[in-house]
Specification:
Distance between the termini: 35 Å
Structural class: mainly alpha
Number of domains: 2
Number of helices: 9
Helix content: over 70%
CATH superfamily of the largest domain: Tetracycline Repressor, domain 2
C-alpha cells in the first residue's frame, strides 16, 4: 500500500505511512516511534491528531483502502464481459502473488492480526471486503447467475483463501486463483 505522492500535511503523512508500514510490517510490529519517524512527525503531533494508535490504524485503512480496492477491480465500463471482469480480479491476484513484495490483502491481514471483529479497523476492513463481494455480485447478476449473492460470497472466499495461501507459502499462485474462480463460474454460468 505504498503511496507515490508525498502528502503535505502531517495527518496525511501519518495516514500514508501507517497504511504502508502496517501492511508491510504488521500493526503490532510497527511501534509509534517507527511510524512517526517514517511520517516525519513527532509523537506529540501524532497524539494530537489521533487519540490512539488504534484510531490511526482504522483511519489509515479508511483513507487508503479505496485506492487499494480500485487497483484490484477492473473498470466496469470497460469492454470486458461480466465474467471476464470477475476473472480479471483473480488474474491480477495471481500476478501480484508472484512478487517478492506481496504481503497479502491488507484488509484480511488487519482483521486477522487484530482478532477483534468490533475493533474500528476490523469494521473498516470488513466494509472494504464487502466492496469486493458487492462487485462480484453485480458482475454475477449481469452474467445471469441464478444466485449471484452466493456466488459472490464464494468468489470472495476463493480470493481471500488464495491471498492467504500465497502469503503462507511465500510463493506465487501460478494461476490457481483464476482457475478456481473459473470453475465456480462454470458451475453457475456454464462455460463460454
Amino acid at each position: 500500500m505504498t503511496s507515490t505522492t508525498d502528502p503535505a500535511t502531517p495527518r496525511d503523512r501519518l495516514l500514508h505511512a501507517a497504511a504502508d508500514l502496517f501492511h508491510r510490517e504488521g500493526i503490532t510490529a510497527t511501534g509509534v516511534e517507527r511510524l512517526c519517524q517514517a511520517a516525519g512527525v513527532s509523537k506529540r503531533t501524532m497524539y494530537q491528531l489521533f487519540e490512539t494508535k488504534d484510531a490511526l490504524v482504522a483511519e489509515s485503512l479508511a483513507a487508503c483502502g479505496p485506492a487499494v480496492v480500485a487497483v484490484h477491480l477492473p473498470d466496469e465500463t470497460s469492454g470486458l464481459a461480466p465474467r471476464e471482469r470477475i476473472l480479471a480480479v483473480f488474474a491480477h491476484l495471481d500476478e501480484l502473488s508472484g512478487s517478492s513484495e506481496y504481503r497479502g490483502c491488507p484488509f484480511l491481514n488487519t482483521a486477522v492480526e487484530l482478532r477483534d471483529p468490533q475493533h474500528p479497523a476490523s469494521v473498516v476492513a470488513r466494509n472494504h471486503k464487502q466492496r469486493l463481494t458487492d462487485f462480484f455480485a453485480r458482475q454475477a447478476r449481469l452474467a445471469g447467475a441464478a444466485d449471484p449473492e452466493t456466488l459472490a460470497r464464494q468468489l470472495t472466499i476463493v480470493y481471500d483463501g488464495s491471498a492467504s495461501r500465497a502469503v503462507t507459502q511465500g510463493a506465487g499462485l501460478d494461476g490457481l486463483a483464476t482457475l478456481t474462480a473459473s470453475a465456480l463460474l462454470d458451475a453457475q454460468l456454464g462455460t463460454t
